[in-house]
Amino acid sequence: MEEFHINDRVTIEGKNSMGTIAFIGDTHFSDDPWLGIIFDQPVGRNNGSYEGFQCFKCGENHGIFVRPYQVKKVSFIPSESEASNVTNRKHYSNYLRSDLLSTVASFQFTYCWFTYASSTIYLI
């Protein structure tokens, strides 16, 4: 089975859309590991929450929870025309690196939370 990481670009079996992994781990609804995916388009089923537990955040109908065996990684290799659109590759790669680092830093700790009677409870 493939190994997955936060921010991997993926496709989901049965869906004709790409997304990004935002959550990897156990959930309150299963003892097995699940992946939380944020779709590029609103073709999902949730906003990163399920039954009151929030495991990741995304727009309404942009999120879905799936089993790892339902997911395939996507490799993106830009065409020559796409690559030529980047005029200052050094500046662009530094921007991507800093953006990626801030995104990865925000996902360092994976946990779910839910709100009950105006109290927020965190599960780590």
Automatic annotation (TrEMBL):
Coiled-coil ranges (or none): none
Q: Where is the signal peptide?
A: none
Q: Which BP terms in the Gene Ontology apply to this protein?
A: microtubule anchoring
Q: Which residues form the CAP-Gly domain?
A: 25-67
GO cellular component terms?
centrosome
Question: Which GO MF term does the entry hold, naming one?
Answer: microtubule binding
Name-wise, this protein is CAP-Gly domain-containing protein
Q: Which organism is it from?
A: Araneus ventricosus (Orbweaver spider)
